[in-house]
Amino acid sequence: MPSTFKTTLTELYEGDSARAHRFRYALLAFDIVTMIFVIITSFLAHALWVEVTDLVLGLVILCDFSARVCVTRRTLRYFLRFSTLADIAALMSFLAPLAGEGLGFLRILRTLRLLHTYQLLERLRQDFRLFRAHEEVILAALNLLVFIFVTTGLIYALEHGHNPHIRNYADALYFTITTLTTTGFGDITLDGTTGRLLSIAVMFFGVTLFLRLAQVLFRPTKVRCECKVCGLMLHDADAVHCKHCGTVIHIGTEGQG
């Protein structure tokens, strides 16, 4: 591969130019569009255009994945990452029309591709004042949405087709939310041993994580209060001294008028 081509790819994926940032924003937009497509097609009858779109998305993902492999400096370490394995599984699922729909359920792992966009954090801080002011809340909301979407996708993939209560993503999402919030109306249940084990896993692991993320979302662990000496902005809610320079800080409380 010509070095100039690899240099261009490295600049796009890891560089700090305006073109590189636009490129990574485009990848983020592609991830979001991909998720929307996965959700919408769960409500539609199986059709040729869905398979064709799957194939096109799979080819784009293949190009993106190949480019990332090309620019990585530690190939073995890159392939051992869970996010990379999720990318491979998602890639296989989108290309499933070439070999049947047996791997279709793996496409939910494409959602984890959003985690790759965390490399944009620094640029998001620079470009969006709203993001700088509410970074912790925004990231907690993103993590919560990814968790809910992956859990919903897993339930849909395993139950759709043989559980009459799970007809589309909306039904799976309804079950996920009622389980995570411990509401449990009982009108939708997961059948069989596999379904019961999945329900236990969602309740055992999901409720704790869901509540933790929700707590961060509605009550952030950090508060914004600029230190007059070093300028550190984020501090623990009960902090008395700045962790960076030790200066006494005065954080406003909810009880102050």
Automatic annotation (TrEMBL):
Keywords: Ion channel, Ion transport, Membrane, Potassium, Potassium channel, Potassium transport, Transmembrane, Transmembrane helix, Transport. GO terms for cellular component: membrane. The chain crosses the membrane at residues 25-49, 78-99, 137-158, 196-214. It is found in: Membrane. It is a multi-pass membrane protein. Residues 145-218 form the Potassium channel domain. The keyword Transmembrane applies. Pfam families: Ion_trans_2. This is Ion transport 2 family protein. It comes from Celeribacter indicus.
